[in-house]
Amino acid sequence: MNDANGSGNWAIETRKLTKHYGRQCVVNQLNLRVPTGGVYGLLGRNGAGKSTSIKMLMGLVRPDYGTAVMLGEDVSELKPETRGRIAYLAEGHPLYPWMTVKQCVDFCSPFYPKWNGRMVEQVLDHFALSSKKKVKHLSRGQRGQLALTLAVAPDPDLLILDDPTLGLDPTVRRDFLDSIVQIIQRPGRTILFSSHILPDVERVADRIGVMLDGVLRVDCPTEVFKASVVKVVCEFEGTIPQMPTPAGLLQKRQLGKKVELAFVRYGDEQRKELERLQPKKIEEVSLSLEDAFIEYTREARRPLNLFSGEELPEEVADGALVGS
Questions:
Q1: pTM (2 decimals)?
Q2: What dihedral do alpha carbons 114, 118, 121, 125 form, nearest 10°?
Q3: Phi and psi of 170, rounded to 5°?
């Protein structure tokens, strides 16, 4: 557990956090740990449970079971001064459309004793946002920039972003992501953000979690995940033999005289098993984060858990693959 000032190892820690909507379990015993000072990307397909998990952290959705701690305090009992150290950028960047940019700033600033008005002016100038322009007349990208400015103005120790680039076109999304990198990162600040746009995550996150059907299946450094998911292409000259099912196999696809296989933790054991089939060639292909995520989350086979840390959650400790 972190201390009361949030100076321990974890800025966020949940234990068995669970939420049902009717009979559907949308978040299933979530054990999430976000290291203090890191940038953590929470990934998953639509409906995987990312936004519900974040809303439980923010107190917007009540969990059915489990606990959540942020900056050393239970989220159900956060002190006002602790809440002032946490900023939240909601999905879709909700803002009052009738307000001007200046009115949005004036409305938010009294809630935060550490509000940095000078920084707000500098950021709005950087974004070329007129203080007199109404929210309803801003583009999607500009609304996102304004929402980001309001989120970082209190100089939070913990910043939570729920799919911050959702709905932005590629050019605006890149500019917005560059803004995030330039503005929000400072020593000691922790950032948790969800996204299903993997190139965005690859650019900024040093650690990722992957949720599938409400379950956290991956929790490891970004580079560890990319290195752990490997595509192997076996090329044959004649008839393709019956393919085995080696340990860690995620996917298997035949393309003409080639067979593509995706593995978690491909190594000597799996390679030797494939070599016994006497292929003409075996090629190992490195994957981007996006390609690794796609291979890992395809529905052909249920993937193995991939965790990396000092301690594994009880529910997956027996079957998890531990990263270095």
A1: 0.84
A2: -130
A3: -55, -40
Strand partners, 233: 260, 283
Residue 164 sits in the same domain as residue 238: no
User: Is the distance from CB of 293 to CB of 198 less than 8 angstroms?
Assistant: yes
Residue 9 — φ and ψ, nearest 5°?
Answer: -75, -25
What one-letter code names the amino acid at 43? L
Each residue's pLDDT, cut to its tens digit, for the chain (324 residues) gives 344 444 458 999 999 999 999 999 999 999 999 999 989 999 998 889 999 999 999 999 999 999 999 999 999 999 988 998 999 988 777 899 999 999 999 999 998 888 989 889 988 888 889 999 999 999 888 888 898 889 888 889 999 998 877 766 777 777 777 766 766 667 788 999 888 778 878 888 999 999 999 999 999 999 999 999 999 999 999 889 988 888 889 989 999 999 999 998 889 999 999 999 999 999 999 899 999 999 998 864 555 666 665 443 444 333 343 333
- 68 and 188 both lie in a single domain: yes
Let me know whether 146 and 269 are in one domain: no
Coil, helix or strand at residue 154: coil
* CA–CA separation, 81 and 66 (whole Å): 24
In this structure, is the dihedral angle defined by the CA atoms of residues 67, 12, 40 and 94, taken in order, positive or negative?
A: positive
Alpha-carbon span 8 to 191, nearest angstrom: 15
Q: Give every CB contact of residue 193 below 8 A, 6+ residues apart in sequence.
A: 39, 40, 41, 42, 160, 161, 162, 163, 164, 201, 204, 205
| Amino acid, single-letter form, for residue 112 | Y
Residues 36 and 179 grouped into a single domain:
yes
How many Å apart are CA 259 and CA 256, to the nearest integer?
8
Radius of gyration of the chain (CA): 22
As for how many domains the chain has, the answer is 2
Q: How many CA atoms lie within 13 A of 195 on its CB side?
A: 28
Provide the domain limits for residue 279.
225-305+318-322
Residues 42 and 190 in one domain: yes
